[in-house]
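Late entry, adenosine-5'-triphosphate complex.
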Amino acid sequence: MTEYDTVPAAVDDEEEIPGDHPRYQDLLTRHRIEEGVKKGITHLQGMHAEGRGSAFDYLIGEETIESADEAARVAAATLLLAETPVLSVNGNVAALVPAETVALAEAVDADIEINLFNRTPERMAAIEAHLKQHGATEVRGLEADASIPGLEHARGTVDADGIYAADVVVVPLEDGDRAEALGRMGKTEIVIDLNPLSRSPQVADVPIVDNVIRAVPNITAHARELENASAEKLQAIVEDFDAAGALTDAERRIRQGELE
Ligand code: ATP
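Prediction complete; structure with ligand written out below:
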């Protein structure tokens, strides 16, 4: 028995999770998702998604691997070059990284749009309020006056001047169908997903195989570092990227662990 065996599975406040716990990030993630469900932000389905992500993160080593860090830099360059970038937020993203999403939107001058698989007016309003509590001034997704071709009504609902018109979209933890449909619309897609075999990262222009908790602030850090870079330099970073190679690297890490 170690001192960590005494940490309760569920805590009331995230401050109660010891910062030096070896599974700190995982405990924090679980806590935020549970809170998200209680606040009506996260759907119960989101807990299943989190469980799947947690297993992949365990195998990856709960750290940002080099290829994911490179992908995050490419994502930053892509967003800085974009004309109308939009960050798509679902119930898990809102629960896990609300302030971090607002910081990224500010760093790359992007809009934030709520886009839910299980869309209800109550959840839309709860997520909007939660994002505003964490610093968002404008949140899109409530107009719901356009739809992504090829998806049935609720799942395809977007804002005409938000995701529908965007040239670059960041879709963390997106479901495969919607990622494919956005790709068919010609969007440049940046996907954050811990499973490199999932359809969403497979169809992404920039797949980041990393936990959204680490990836979102990491893209922001790269964006700040690249803030004054020339368009030529940003373009070169984007063109040098090998998306298939990044996925292969993450899969190798999951299957074989860290090679000497
Ligand atoms: P697909 O439909 O894309 O083939 P799926 O059915 O596995 O895949 P969903 O259930 O829609 O996907 O979404 C869950 C996905 O989100 C999983 O691939 C999971 O690895 C990923 N995921 C869950 N939590 C996180 C997280 N915190 N950070 C990054 N990815 C995560």
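The chain has a mean pLDDT of 93. Will revisit in the morning.
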